[in-house]
Amino acid sequence: MTTPLAAHHAAHQARRQIWRDVTLFDGRHTSTERMAVVVDGDRIAQVCQESAIDTDAFADAIERGRGGVLTPGLIDCHTHLVYGGNRAHEFEMRLEGATYEAIARAGGGIMSTVRATRQADEDTLFATAAKRLAALMADGATTVEIKSGYGLTLADELKLLRVMRRLGRHYPVHIVTTLLGAHALPPEYAGRSDDYIRLVCNEMIPAAAQEGLADAVDVFCEKIAFSVAQCEQVWEAAAAHQLAVKGHVEQLSNLRGAVAAARHRALSADHLEYLAAEDAPALQAAGTVAVLLPGAFYCLGETQLPPIAALRAAGVAMAVATDANPGTSPIVMPTLMLNLACTQYRLTPREALAGMTAHAARALGLADRGHVTPGAVADLCWWDVETPAELAYAVQPGRLRQRIFEGKITHEQA
Ligand code: DI6
Ligand code: FE
């Protein structure tokens, strides 16, 4: 007869799962030994060398996998996944010579997606974003940050944030939401950008904070968007509501938005193609993560490279993300970003993988995800490769054998 306590103990024990004899990329480094990882409930319980494993102690653990490579679940820390319509026609215009900036100035670009997004209802936005989210998840993403910024009215921005929260409730993925009200100046505010910034600061941020819809606040600091001074007002309003701050900075020109973001203790400064090398140490000093978005660089045919060597030399944590959006990076494949980070930006495969795991977690302010260490959330990917570098080397869907979200296998290859 089992006592209630023993029964409880057995149920608890039964939850333990083990992956054995794996090469482990723990979020920063690749193990030199074969490793075993034990998961208890939704947390990593133990990480040890395969040779040191106590088989008696783990006799009760369910063996889920043996061999291959285990990594943290991938973290896509910068996406714009929720929007209406698409921009295939602008893609064709750009192929005929129109530039991204010229299309934006003529009322296309972000504004064409804003028009389609305002017209779309929440169910439509949910359904179209769900397909893109499914693609990210099938390629290993267990955490996805999503920015608003295609509504640009109080009601439409909140609508986008609600869709994101709903995605997080419906799918086995951790969603982090970011209010990007200061993405572009809507036509109703033409010539009155300071008035629009007041709307962002005085209405959007308080409402999003009060309804618990936003985890962070982002801005587009650029000549075709908002000035450094305007972005700083937005960051101050965010801080007043205890929201973390981020910035799209130095993507198309150097306004020194990254240094301003660092002054405001931003979690991350994103894009950075036009960052001046001498501004890299400011990011390091503030603990601001440099989020690299090689998909946008690639899709725009950009030639200006971010100052990777300076970021590396300054010890700035570099994250890598898809920037999934309809204009500059219609790509929902995290492992392709590992490849592009290496081929376009010359990151090492190890840096690229850290960029989509440990450093991406930092860019979102998440302490307990992005690394395989005892106590961390058990978000894992088990891959059908022999070395972590292969994930960056080959662009090859279908290598994800298991995706584990909060201790549960949510995807298993046949
Ligand atoms: N920079 C980008 O690359 C995206 N937003 C931004 O601020 C592009 C958004 C778009 O073109 O729809
Ligand atoms: Fe972006």
Structure in words:
By secondary structure, the protein is α/β, with parallel strands linked by helices. The chain folds into two domains: 5-72 and 371-412, Urease, subunit C, domain 1; 74-363, TIM Barrel (Alpha-Beta Barrel). The chain is 37% helix and 21% strand. The chain is built from 16 helices and 16 strands. The chain has helices at residues 4-14, 88-95, 100-105, 110-119, 122-138, 154-170, 193-210, 228-240, 257-263, 280-286, 294-299, 308-314, 334-343, 349-355, 358-363, 389-393, and strands spanning 17-24, 35-40, 43-49, 62-66, 69-72, 74-76, 141-147, 174-182, 216-221, 244-249, 268-271, 289-292, 318-320, 380-383, 400-405, 408-412. Strands 1, 2, 3, 4, 5, 14, 15 and 16 form an eight-stranded mixed sheet that branches. Strands 6-7-8-9-10-11-12-13 form an eight-stranded parallel sheet. β10 (244-249), α9 and β11 (268-271) form a beta-alpha-beta unit. α13 (334-343) crosses α14 (349-355). The two termini are 39 Å apart. The model has no long low-confidence stretch (mean pLDDT 95). 3-[(4S)-2,5-dioxoimidazolidin-4-yl]propanoic acid binds at residues 80, 109-110, 113, 183, 220, 248, 251, 296, 323, 325-328.
What is the total number of structural domains?
A: 2
Query: Hetero groups bound?
Result: 3-[(4S)-2,5-dioxoimidazolidin-4-yl]propanoic acid, fe (iii) ion
Number of strands: 16
- Mean pLDDT, as a whole number? 95
Name the structural class.
Answer: alpha/beta
Number of helices: 16
CATH top-level class of the largest domain: Alpha Beta
Amount of beta strand: 15-25%
CATH H level, superfamily name of the largest domain: Metal-dependent hydrolases
